[in-house]
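Q: I'm writing up a methods section and want to include an example of the input and output format. Could you take the sequence below and give the corresponding predicted C-alpha cells, formatted cleanly so I can copy it straight into the document?
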Amino acid sequence: MRLTEQNVKEVIVDASMKKAVFVYFFMNAPECEAATKAVTAAITDNNEYVSLVEADVQEQVSQAVAMQLGLQTVPALIVMQNGRPVDALQGDDVVTKLPETIKKFMPSEAELLIREANDLEQKGDLQQAVTKAKQAYNLDEKNVEIKLIYARLCIKNKELELAHILLDNAGREEQSMQDYKDLVSALTLAEQAAESPEIKELEAKFNAAPDNSEIASNYAAALAEAGKKAKALEILFNILKKDLSDANAKKTFLDLLNTMSGDPLQKEYRRKLYTLMY
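A: Here is the clean output for your methods example:
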C-alpha cells in the first residue's frame, strides 16, 4: 500500500493497533533497488499478520513522516505497533536483517496452533481442538495463555484429569490471574457433576464384585463419560488381561481409545493391547 496524504493516519497509526505495520521509506534510486525488491517480496498484501506501507520520500507526505521519525537516509524500514515505532532497519540492514525482523512480529508455530484450536472449537470439533492445543502447549509450555486455553478445552471435553495436571502446577503469578481462577472453579464444578449418584452406585457394585466384567465395563464407561478416562482404561485393560475374548470390555475399551486422538494414553494403551494380543 502506498502512503498518501489521505491515508497516513489510517495505514500507519490505526492499522498498527491491529497488527505490525512495516513502513518502508525509499526513493527511485539505485541504492534502494535491492531493498525495495526484498521488502515487497517478503511482505505481500495477503499477509494477515504484518502489513507493508511504501513511503516514497520524493513525495511531501512521506518526507514529513520521515522527518517526524528522525530518518536521515533511505532505504529505511520502521516497524509500527500500537501507533508507536518499535523497530527500525536502515541501509544494507533492510535486506540482510529483514527476515529476522519480520519473524519477530509473526506468530510462533505454537500461537498458530492455538488459533487453529480455537477455530476448531468454534466449528464444534472439540476433540481435534484439544489435540491442536496440546501440540501448541508442547511447543511452548511457558506460554500461560496457551496453557489456560488448553486447560479450558480439556475441561470442556471432560478430560478432567489432564486439566488438573495443567492447573495444579501453576506459579504464583498465574494463580493470581482471573482466567486461572475461573478455570479452577469450572474444573471443581465439572468434578462435582462427575460424582453423580449413578457413578457412586456403579463404584459400589464394582468394589463389591471387581471381577464381574459387565459391572466393570459399565463403571468404566460411566467414568469415561465423566472425564476420568485414565481410570476407565485401567479398569477395562485389567478385564482384558484376564480374558481377552471379553467382547463387551474390548468394545468399550476400543471405543474409548478412538475418542482420545492425540492423548498419550491412547498410544500407551494401544501398545499394551497389542502386546497382550501378540
